[in-house]
Amino acid sequence: MAVGKVGSSDYNYYQNVSQMRLERALEKNPRYQQSLQAVKPVSRVSSYYNNGGLEFIKSYSSTMTDVMSSANSLRSANSGSVANKMAAVSSDTAVAEAALKYSSRTSKEMTLDVESVAKAQTNVSDGVKALDQAVSDMDFTLAQKGSSLSVQVSASKADGTARTNKEMLEEAARQINAGNSGVTAALTEEKGVMTLKLQSKSTGTDHGFTVSGDMGAAAGAEKTVTAAQNAQYSVTERNVTRNYTSQTNDVSLDAGRISAKLKDTGKTTVSLQADTEKIVKSMSELVDSYNDAVKFLGKNIDRGSGVSDQLDRLGANLGADSTLKRLGISKEKDGTLALDTEKLEKSLKEEPKLTKDLISGSNGIAQNLFNKAAGAMRTSPESLTNYETEESSQFSIYDPYQFMGRYGTTQLNYAMAGMLMNYLV
């Protein structure tokens, strides 16, 4: 997992990466292998290799990096943090649903009052017996703003036999749906009785239509059951109310920053607030990465007192019990944490500002764990595992742990490490 924008001052991550790259280079370099034949390695160095020391350091760095990355995604100091991202929320989704179209970091609230929703026009014919013979032809016109469609169906087939009402209505529906009009046709049949339903494809008064002519089996379809209607709504923000009309139920609020879908008449509060869903998800990931770190350190505690010290530091001073309780966090007997997402969601809903600050503020749990993991990353491999050679007063470039350890404590210059690796490889 990658850590984004945490800064070199927070931890010496690249130093550890350079260290592992150098170790790998030394392992593969012929000169290094020849030197091992000429110079007998110190027994404790060989033992460290045999005990998986390299893999431990790699896993340690990866585990702590995961904690930092998870914590960084919640820190308010990180501009890309989920804590700095807003979501549009409607208090009554039965009246309207809301979504954020453009990013915003400013909280706000407005009242949306829906007086009417936009509707499509609907016409329905009288019911006729489907299998009865048609008594007359159909010859009618569907007219909309700027267009019209002629529908013609003969009551007789090409062979001179009579069509049934069902056949008449099916052919009329086919012509309507195949035509380039803004109206759709649908048939319903119940207990042998059939009807033709005509409906405009779009809502709003601009998309209304008229039906005129000889209707035949579709008699009654010229009458409107539901009239085309525009949406009427008002938005009140900071005690200022503005009225609006829309041909559709998909409208824009806050100068286009928020999209809303009107669903029914009534009032709802639309607000821009912290994205609860993303915060809860990121908190779950942070707890998971923390628990992985605790378990990893616990399994490797016999490698040295440094590992035990890191485990103690990681679990100490996570926050007041009242704070953890408000965030839905509880401590398990094995040192791991458990997160009650429902409690966290409730706190974010009831006290969003306080809860967000407890998570993402400068003294929040995300910053706290970020700092703990950053401190763990600054720990040198030697102090972590109590590693030292029997000839500690000597310096050998062929011992990668001794070489990197000494320079690591004085912030080894990355360019120097790169040139050295190029030379060795």
Main structural class? alpha+beta
What order do the strands of the largest sheet run in, or round the barrel if closed? 1-16-3-12-13
The span between the termini is 28 Å
Largest sheet: 5 strands, antiparallel
Task: Give an overview in words.
This protein has helices at residues 13-28, 30-38, 43-50, 53-72, 165-178, 276-299, 305-315, 321-326, 341-350, 352-360, 365-378, 381-385, 400-408, 414-424, and strands at residues 86-90, 96-100, 108-116, 122-124, 128-129, 138-144, 147-153, 183-190, 193-200, 209-214, 224-226, 231-237, 240-246, 250-253, 258-262, 266-274, 329-331, 337-339. The two termini are 28 Å apart. Strand 12 and strand 13 form a beta hairpin. The strands form five sheets. It has a five-stranded antiparallel β-sheet with strand order 1-16-3-12-13, with no helix packed on it. Strands 4, 5, 8, 9 and 11 form a five-stranded antiparallel β-sheet that branches. It has a three-stranded antiparallel β-sheet with strand order 2-15-14, with no helix packed on it. The chain is elongated and about 105 Å long. With 425 residues, the protein is an alpha+beta fold.
Quick recap of the structure?
The chain has helices at residues 13-28, 30-38, 43-50, 53-72, 165-178, 276-299, 305-315, 321-326, 341-350, 352-360, 365-378, 381-385, 400-408, 414-424, and strands spanning 86-90, 96-100, 108-116, 122-124, 128-129, 138-144, 147-153, 183-190, 193-200, 209-214, 224-226, 231-237, 240-246, 250-253, 258-262, 266-274, 329-331, 337-339. By secondary structure, it is of the alpha+beta class.
